[in-house]
Amino acid sequence: RRIKARIEIPDFTRRRDEIGHLSGALRDMTSALYSRIEAIEMFAADVAHELKNPLTSLRSAVETLPLARNENSRARLLEVIEHDVKRLDRLISDISDASRLDAELQRQDAIPVDLRRLLTTLVSVANETKLGHDVAVETRFEGRGASDTLAVTGHDSRLGQVVSNLLSNAQSFSERGSKVRLTCRRVRGEIEIVVDDDGPGIRDDALERIFERFYTDRPHQGFGQNSGLGLSISKQIIDAHGGRIWAENRAGPPDDEGVPTVAGARFVVRLPAL
Fold first, then answer.
1. Mean pLDDT (whole number) for 93-110
2. What is the pTM of this model?
């Protein structure tokens, strides 16, 4: 029989026997299942919307191509087609990564991750490749000494993906020749990772939205150059590790009228310490 409405399990949790415990467990499982179904439906709707835009542009360019009257028009249309194909490829790759993330994190066992070693490796790679930018990365580990334990329980490849994404974002918004600073420290029962840049900062209305799926604010890169999933996936990974991630602006010196300026953006990750 097809279920057309949400079914609620009777609440017998006031009972202190097996029936009460079973009722509570079934209600929790049902609630989690419905939440998962709603999340999948929302994700599917977002994916359909994002894929439709480049497909519409691609279809229009393909239909117009036979009508082009000269080589310049044909060349411009071919550029549009190439741009939309690359955009679709980026979207599909990032969507695939996001869709299998939860299952992968649940299937794999969490292990101790030495953040000092992981971050040192990631920064070394970032400085060798510059990730397409002429912006170096500096690393600082704060604590009592080099032997301080900066370890968490988790998945090193996924945590590395988060840090690599934050470094890449910071470099892309920085001026050539400037530096990005990565700091790692222990804050009571948590390990904090901070990525600072000297770029233009983040608009106040975007500090929360930047972690939404498909949200992107990169006017200098041109439309469609970024899928808008990088920070969303990063938040998904950090949430799965029981941590937090947020963005803020670093305050700079006041201008001539006494209004505080923005010195750059800061991304902060906090994870439960091992």
1. 77
2. 0.72
